[in-house]
Design a protein that fits this description.
With 147 residues, the protein is of the alpha/beta class. It is built from seven helices and seven strands; from the N terminus they run E-H-H-E-E-E-H-H-E-H-E-H-H-E. The strands form two sheets. A five-stranded mixed beta sheet has the order 3-4-5-6-7, with helices on both faces. The chain has a two-stranded antiparallel sheet with strand order 1-2.
Length: 147
């Protein structure tokens, strides 16, 4: 666990990895407050989902690390997407650095709900690491993945 001051000093010194810089910038902007408890957070458990709607398309923008702990929160935050599974949904993973099996299970749950309700799901902008995970798990065959 790191406190916010430790993360900020790591960022200022240039010793932080990319995900730490992302967490620090979210803290500075105030968008990560719900992920910060008692001025401490686990960098590996940082996850952020922003849902936008544009011309009837719901876009979920995923950022950070979706590990087992973060997937619990993601499951709650995905509720609006699950409730709108009859529509077109896009998951933008450009800023997603890591996904665990718990995170994959959530994506599979969303895919099943979308298929049952007659909507569509596109996953876009995955990085090379996420691409490897999707390839090894067979998710490339299950999802419409675009860059």
């Amino acid at each position: 666990m790191f406190n916010v001051l430790s993360v900020a000093s790591l960022c200022e010194s240039g010793r932080a990895e990319r995900n730490v810089l992302s967490v620090a910038s979210l803290c500075e902007s105030g968008r990560a407050e719900r992920n910060v408890q008692c001025s401490k957070f686990n960098v590996q458990s940082y996850m952020y989902l922003e849902i936008k709607e544009n011309e009837g398309v719901l876009t979920g923008i995923l950022s950070g690390h979706i590990d087992t702990l973060a997937s619990e929160e993601l499951g709650r935050e995905m509720a609006p997407l699950l409730e709108s599974a009859d529509r077109q949904i896009v998951l933008d993973c450009e800023n997603l650095a890591y996904i665990s099996s718990s995170g994959l299970r959530l994506l599979l749950t969303l895919r099943k709900k979308v298929a049952a309700d007659g909507g569509s799901l596109v996953i876009r902008n995955i990085n090379d690491e996420i691409r490897k995970v999707f390839t090894l798990t067979g998710f490339f065959k299950l999802f419409d993945i675009r860059n």
